[in-house]
Design a protein that fits this description.
The protein is 41% helix and 16% strand. The protein has helices spanning 12-20, 25-30, 39-45, 51-63, 85-88, 90-101, 117-127, 130-133, 176-183, 189-194, 204-211, 227-237, and strands spanning 67-71, 79-83, 138-144, 147-154, 157-162, 170-173, 199-202. Strand 4 and strand 5 form a beta hairpin. The longest helix is centred in the first third of the chain and has 13 residues, at 51-63.
């Protein structure tokens, strides 16, 4: 990789970070863990990343064997990027990092950005609580415009992947911020449906049970407020935060 980072350390962690420790790299991989994507779809999921930097990262990831490019057959005839078998092994790594990172208070890194669709779906994976799910069995299709995911809870497990669901019990159609607000933000499913922000097809009862299976993690530590965070809090308290 151009400008490869080296740690002069034979430890497996150091060797891994030498390949995937560069800024943006794991986020690019995050956008591919649920299946192949076109360049434009990747770019849409990483709006803060310039297309030039994205192109560079994709070339580097192809060179080291974590990502490959292929052409879909007719009728699509488009080029997509996807993880290789080696790259796909990083999914469990991302889940572990996401589960750990979800317990870090949001105030530690204030941002006005929202989660990409793939980041939100990965957040569902990292926060699923089998104890809350109990004996719940539900097959769901999540729709985000043209992007579809088939999700299923059964036997205390949650499985999700890109693609249409087969005979779903419920279809949830919303954008990423809306579903995030329902699952993690305390907004009721009924309110999201009533305002038209979320479209529901199928069992409303099962949908309600499903969204409760992903509790917002309790922060594991208290971090000192950064000057930026403190300034924003002070402005908000004085009604100056717009």
């Amino acid at each position: 990789m151009k400008g490869e980072r080296t740690y002069d350390d034979p430890c497996g962690i150091a060797r891994a970070l030498g390949l995937i420790g560069e800024r943006w790299t794991l986020r690019v991989i995050r956008e591919l863990v649920f299946g192949p994507k076109r360049f434009t779809d990747l770019s849409r999921g990483l709006p803060a990343m310039s297309q030039n930097v994205l192109s560079q990262r994709l070339r580097e990831l192809q060179r080291i064997g974590l990502v490959r490019q292929r052409k879909l057959g007719p009728p699509a005839s488009i080029r997509v990027y996807e993880l290789t078998e080696l790259g796909a092994e990083l999914k469990s790594v991302l889940v572990a990092i996401g589960r750990w990172g979800s317990r870090i208070p949001l105030d530690a890194a204030p941002t006005a950005s929202d989660l990409s669709v793939d980041a939100l779906v990965l957040a569902l994976v990292t926060t699923f609580d089998a104890a809350i799910a109990g004996d719940l069995a539900v097959r769901c299709e999540l729709r985000f415009d043209d992007d579809r995911f088939h999700a299923e809870i059964a036997d205390g497990r949650f499985a999700v992947d890109r693609g249409d669901a087969s005979r779903p019990d419920v279809i949830i159609d919303a954008d990423s911020p809306t579903l995030r607000s329902v699952v993690f933000g305390g907004r009721s499913l009924e309110d999201a449906v009533a305002t038209g922000d979320l479209r529901l097809n199928g069992s409303a009862e099962l949908a309600g049970l499903l969204v409760r299976c992903f509790p917002r993690p309790t922060p594991a530590l208290t971090l000192p407020r950064t000057p930026l965070a403190a300034d924003r809090k002070e402005k908000k308290e004085h009604g100056l935060d717009t």
